[in-house]
Amino acid sequence: MILEEKNGLKILRSTLFSRFPELVFGFSTRIGGFSKGDFSSLNLSVSVNDKKENVSANRNLFFSALGISQEKIAFSGQVHGERIVFPQNFGLQKECDGLITNKNNVFLTLTGADCYCVFFYEPKQKVVCGVHSGWRGTVQEIVKKAVLKMENEFFCKPNEILAFVTPGISCENFEVGEEVAVNFSENFIKRKAKPFVDLEKVLQKQLLDCGLKKENIELSGLCTYKNEELFFSHRRDKGKTGRMFGTIGIKF
User: Are 165 and 118 in contact (CB under 8 A)?
Assistant: First the structure.
């Protein structure tokens, strides 16, 4: 993983993905934007009561740093489900938590602020995919559905697929009730007064179960809750916070 400084922003890049010059990928941090207060400073979401002009300016900064046009973005309209769509147009794709394409110059964009996002690239078939996987999406195994879709619809081979798991809330900070914990194997739960779930390790196991090679799975290892200087966190900030973007696409 690489933390790159560009245009006053700090953007996370994938070491795995960086081997492919045709691939555009970046995951934003909160650093370098125009938003104030709870949304300081690179909030990229229009749905958190931030000023629209600040969000617009922030998006210009982020997508310019990636070298892509906002007119070429497909946004996932996330609902904590398992639906993955092939965008037929740019802009918001309603009620889906995953996007997939084999088209050039279509940049798939997901939102995060504690939930994990997982991005995929299969360099032989030139297919990109991104899924939003909070605890609900993880229980629904949305990453497995993404890999299966890449296999069945685009003839990708799991052992050729690369995956990057973005920052999200770490096990030490993800305290849950028993009604949530019951959905996970005890192998991924640490128990104190209450259970704590390791979603990152669950996602890694699901990817391995799909046939991805361990060396083709990159975990950021960064916690959105713990790293307040870098990331927004819905739980830490009690809902009054901004959002990060993760974007992937093939540029020609």
Answer: yes
Domains of the chain with bracketed CATH: 2-250 (3.60.140.10)
Tokens representing residue 146 in the block: 């993404």
Q: Which two tokens stand for residue 227?
A: 């790293």
Beta-carbon count within 10 A of 31 CB: 17
Average pLDDT, the chain: 98
Cα–Cα dist 183/7, whole Å: 43
Q: How far apart are the first and last CA of the chain?
A: 24
| Cβ neighbours around 52 below 10 Å, total | 8
Give the amino acid at 107. Answer: F
Cα separation, 226 vs 137, in Å, equals 22
Torsion of CA 136, 117, 128, 230, to 10 degrees: 170
* pTM greater than 0.85 (yes/no): yes
Q: Which two tokens stand for residue 126?
A: 């030139």
Evaluate if residue 104 carries a pLDDT over 90.
Answer: yes
- Residue 216 carries which side chain, given as an amino acid letter? N
Among 64, 112, 135, which residue's Cα sits nearest to residue 233? Answer: 112
Judging by DSSP bridges, how do beta strands 189-191 and 195-197 pair with one another?
antiparallel
Asked whether 168 and 199 are in contact (CB, 8 A), the reply is yes
AA identity, residue 246: G
Please give the structure tokens belonging to residue 72: 């070429």
